Amino acid sequence: MLPELYNYWVVIILMMIGFYIVIVQGNLIKKLIGLNIFQTSVFIFYISVGKVAGGSAPIVAEGVSVYSNPLPHVLILTAIVVGIATMALALALVVRIKNAYGTVEEEELQERDLRC
Amino acid sequence: MLAGIYGLLSASFFVSMDAVDVAFTEAAVGAGVFPLLMLTALTVAGRYEQTAHRRPRAAFFLVLVTGALLILGTLDMPPFGSPDAPAHTHVAARYIQASPTEIGIPNMVTSVLADYRAFDTLGEVVVVFTAVVGVLILLTSGEQRQQSSPANAVETMRSHMILRVVSKMLIPLMLLFALYVQFHGEYGPGGGFQAGVIFAAAIILYAMLFGLAKAQAAIKPSILRLLAAFGVLLYGGVGVVSFLTGVNYLDYSRLAADPVAGRHIGILVIELGVGITVAAAMILIFYAFAGYATGRVEAE
Asked: pLDDT digit string (tens) for B55-84?
């Protein structure tokens, strides 16, 4: 039973690494990298769920009767592209913050906000 | 660099789990576009951070507890690869059985993406488009800087002779490959999303090696903006056309006399729309970042 779940555990470890980075790092760009790792772990989770033992890729071929689940593939495929687009939006925000405040460190940002 | 390797690694991970379509996308995005975006953003935001970590121990504890709880949760999950997991027993089984006869194309991922869940995909394309609009608003508003920028921040690779010669040979092949992926998406792994990203990666490579100004002269940002909107419109337009034929939004069955052929046409057209929007969006995002970085370096 237990070794069959290792895939999910890898996902959780990755997810927690990302989570930890998001919490601990003060640098906004590093936070985004953490968020990206978190996101990838979710992708891997979905694809793991879609895998069927002994199944082939979901493209119809002769002599193949077991296919992996195509639905998670579709969801993640679009999620990756949407993810990079939203990540770009986040990076753009960071760049503007850097421009307005001169820093991307969270603590310094809060200090400056309080001073105003 | 590390991000690139990470992207490539997770792509091979997806191949091992039969998700070739996803692996394609991840390889192009994770190993190509994402690290480049990060690099250009880092040139603007500064490479170094002050090491001011806040209460790492409390955070570590929190993360540990959350992780432990999640692992506890997995104990109830069906084993990895089990064919009778709940995820495989509902709608997925129907997709696998019915899509070859209903849609008539071998790649189930494409038929689910572009037909069964076409409305979903339309939403995703609109999200990509909106994100681009946001990036453009954030980075190109204010003074117009990109217009006159002979010096370039992302031109640092210009002096690499070997890179330039090799990429000169590779870029046409990449573009050709993108088109192949675009139009072969029904039969093999591929489709609009992947093709768009690969296409954009080729153009971005060109911009990195030969300078932003040259790339912008070859593919103008104003045209790209139009194209990004055009792709979404094309997608939505197919839906309206299917309205006019008397069926539901994005139901392609009456686009041709034979429903299967009609679906074929519909999928081709909306994949084209997706491809155009994604490619234009990615290139525009890169232009915006690179142009912004250039402007900053000149100002300093």
From this structure: 677 778 888 888 888 888 877 777 776 767
Note the pLDDT tens digit of each residue in B123-144. 888 888 888 888 888 887 654 4
**Chain A contact for B218 (CB, 8 A cutoff):** no
Dist CA B201 CA B195 (whole Å): 10
Domain boundaries, chain A: 6-51+67-115
For residue A107, the tally of other CB atoms under 10 A from its CB is 12
The two tokens of residue A104 are: 């991307």
Residues 159 to 188 of B: which have CB under 8 A from any A CB?
Answer: 187-188
Chain B interface test: which of A44, A51, A86, A109 (most B C-beta within 10 Å) = A51
- Contact between B234 and B64 under an 8 Å Cβ cutoff? The reply is no
What is the ipTM score, two decimals?
Answer: 0.78
A53-89 pLDDT, tens digit each: 766 777 776 666 677 777 888 888 888 888 888 888 8
Residue carrying structure tokens 């200090």: A111
pTM score: 0.78
* Helix segments in chain B, DSSP class H: 2-16, 20-28, 34-45, 56-74, 86-89, 91-102, 108-111, 118-140, 161-183, 192-210, 212-218, 221-244, 259-299
Q: Domain A6-51+67-115 - what CATH class?
A: mainly alpha
